[in-house]
Amino acid sequence: MWKLAMAFGLGMTGTAMAEVQTAVVAGGCFWCVESDFEPVPGVIDVVSGYTGGNMANPTYKKHDGHYEAVKITFDSAVIPYAELVSKFLRSVDVTDAGGQFCDRGNAYRTAIFVSDAAQKATAERAVAEAKAVLGTKVVTPVKAANRFWIAEDYHQDYYKGTGIILTRAGPKKQANAYKFYRESCGRDARVRALWGSAAFPG
Q: Is the peptide bond before 171 cis (omega within 30 degrees of 0)?
């Protein structure tokens, strides 16, 4: 009910108005970024999709030029955009220009898509700060947002799925198959190795 109230700009007491904004980021597999950010206090919704390219009506099988990305709807009175971007950078390998973890190719590169000058300035500061903290080049670009295409229904909340998926380790419940994929891909291990105690999720 709290998230529903925020989505309509209503505080639970009726006295505080939510400041609903959106952020679009690409961090490799969109299932993983969605699962990282949905539990964050102040986040109202996270939707998986495609953006950054010119192809109309992209699909999972054909989205040439697009990144796998997520659109995060959030209450900036609870979690400011700067904090959201900082968490995002600490949830990915910002030094990898060829994809993320076991997912290789342009669609799996990292990026922050900004909708206005304020977001651009904030994102650029966050990238510069990440570079200073790590002491190495950060390849995550800050790019102007273009149309965000929502991915197929079966990609939404994939990490919560209850169906049966055939994996290299045999049939698994979808939520368990997602965990198996994420662990096998080395996502969390690499993020912890890069960011240490600052890794997100912790």
A: no
Evaluate whether residue 198 is within a structural domain. no
Domain total in the chain: 1
Q: What's the pTM?
A: 0.89
pLDDT tens figures, 95-127: 999 999 999 999 999 999 999 999 999 999 999
Q: Is residue 182 part of a domain?
A: no
**What DSSP letter does each residue of 113-128 carry, written as one string?**
EESSHHHHHHHHHHHH
| CA gap 94, 86 in Å, rounded | 12
- Give tens-digit pLDDT for 26-47: 999 999 999 999 999 999 999 9
Active centre residues (catalytic): 29
Residue at 170 is within a domain: no
CA distance linking residue 91 with residue 106, whole number of Å: 18
